[in-house]
Specification:
Blueprint: E1 2-5, H1 14-23, E2 27-30, H2 36-44, H3 52-65, E3 71-73, E4 76-79, H4 88-91, H5 93-100, E5 108-109, E6 112-114, H6 128-133, H7 137-159, H8 164-167, E7 180-185, H9 188-191, H10 194-197, H11 200-206, E8 209-213, H12 219-227, H13 236-250, E9 256-262, H14 266-281, E10 286-291, H15 297-319
Parallel strand pairs: 1-2, 1-3, 3-5, 4-6, 7-8, 7-9, 9-10
Helix pairs in contact: 1-7, 2-3, 12-13, 13-14
Amino acid sequence: MKIGIPRSLLYYYYPFWQTLFSRLGFQPVLSDKTNTEILDTAVKDSVSEICVPIKVYVGHVLSLMKKGVDYIYIPRLVSIRKGVTLCPKFLGLPDMIKHSLPGISDKVLTHKIQSDSDDISDYRNYTDFLKVFDISKSELKKALQLAKNEWLNFRKLQKEGYKTELLLEDKKELREDGDLNIGLLGYVYNMYERFINMDLISRLEEMGARVSTFEMFDEEMINDFVSGLRKPMFWEFTNKLMAVGYNFINSPLIDGIIHVTAFGCGPDSILGPFLEIDAEENKKPFMTLRIDEQTGESHVLTRIEAFIDLLRIRKRREAL
């Protein structure tokens, strides 16, 4: 049996899901990497009002339909922290796909995932699989334990500074060193969607910057920050970005911050002004880079080149 996994949005849990489905005796099948065809199809078959990550996801689902998979795995990821949910689009993702793409409803494999951390291996989240796949409880529990081990190792390597985008391809390479330290803020599906963001991280590294991202940070630091907020954000990924964003703002090791966000993102429209205002007050260079399906390569390159040049000028002046 072939289980299709879209290479988009929640794809960054792939080390967990690839191990889980493989150990249950199924064949995980990834959609192709985002390309012009996937994006064009996505824009055509999506409502114009949604953000580009969701549009891209639609394109990946349609890509999997062409691969003849038996199911397309679209879990309803509700939370990875007690009492805090993810963006509403994640909560409604299975329904959105079922009711917007004809002929796909019977192929959607979905269930609810509700966890207190980014370890989503709790057996209670996967009991629907027992009936769908006709497997035993012991088989499922063993597969979940192996998947958990794979996921925890993946997270360990991320925190050690290995490149997430290469770890997902089963390659290990540490982040590049450079004369500038850039704090890159953004949801993983914006930061590592190379086709949409014009391979932003590689561009920064080619310009001599060392890039730090939120998944390199220990959960304890993020949890301490969030627990100290009088009123945390409603969305968990946004809380994580806020915690790391303020760490970047207050860190003397970070020369500048780039916030990469999708045009029309509701949570980021609230988070962004907080970070921009406090970065300015703390004299920390801050740039917001908004992307959508119409973003051009020259736009991204021009802006990051100018930002890097300004940081170097500032650094030279401070050294005098």
